[in-house]
Amino acid sequence: MLKSIAMISLGAAIVLAPLTALAPVAALAQTNQSAAPAASAPPAGSHKSQTRHRSNLSRERAQASAKHMLHMRHPAQP
User: Residues 29-49: pLDDT tens digits?
Assistant: First the structure.
């Protein structure tokens, strides 16, 4: 039991060692903000309008797929 706990902790130390080496670099990158912070864009509409837009896109995609399958099933006669 003690041997398995030691092996698990050794494995965790090996896996997490590269992450701890990168932590000071990430902290330095966060503190060096010489440029103005980027403004986040406001949401592009209400949840209802986003849902309606996604529904319309799905409907258009389904119609295009059905039209394509119709053309594939009935090829144009020469």
Answer: 566 556 555 667 776 789 999
The answer to whether the beta carbons of residues 66 and 72 sit under 8 Å apart is no
**Residue whose entry in the numeric block shows the structure tokens 């965790």:** 12
Q: What is the pLDDT of residues 57-75, one digit of tens each?
A: 999 999 999 999 998 987 7
Q: How far apart are CA 58 and CA 52, in angstroms?
A: 10
Nearest-CA neighbor of 42 among 50, 34, 52, 31? 50
Contact 40, 46 (CB under 8 A): no
**Which of 31, 12, 33, 34 is closest to 23 using CA atoms?**
31
Cα 63 → chain centroid: 27
Q: Which pair of structure tokens corresponds to residue 24?
A: 């000071």
